Structures are given as structure tokens and as C-alpha cells.
Amino acid sequence: MASSNDIKSSQETYTGFLSAAKWGTIAAVLVAALVVFLITR
């Protein structure tokens, strides 16, 4: 079984990954919206 420290470290890494994925998705959507806006203008 994994030690307590391994689980804590894994949870911190997973939380950081989810945060990066969330902000990356938001940034990609904003950039895509900007590109669509500029093309249709």
C-alpha cells in the first residue's frame, strides 16, 4: 500500500494539474473567441 506521504504528494500534483487544465481551457476558449471575432470583423 502507498505511504501517506506518497498519497499527499499525488493529491497535490493532481490538484495542480486540474488547476492548470482549467486555466488552460479558459485561455484557449478566450483566444479562440478572439480569433473568431477578428475573422468576422
TrEMBL record:
Pfam families assigned to the protein according to its UniProt record, in alphabetical order: COX4_pro_2
Gene3D superfamilies in the record: Bacterial aa3 type cytochrome c oxidase subunit IV
Superkingdom, taxonomy of origin: Bacteria
Cross-referenced InterPro entries: Cyt-C_aa3_sf, Cyt_c_oxidase_su4_bac-aa3
Keywords from the UniProt entry: Membrane, Transmembrane, Transmembrane helix
Domain Cytochrome c oxidase subunit IV bacterial aa3 type, first and last residues per copy: 2-37
Transmembrane domains' residue ranges: 20-39
Keyword flag Transmembrane: yes
Protein name from the UniProt record: Aa3-type cytochrome c oxidase subunit IV
Organism: Novosphingobium bradum
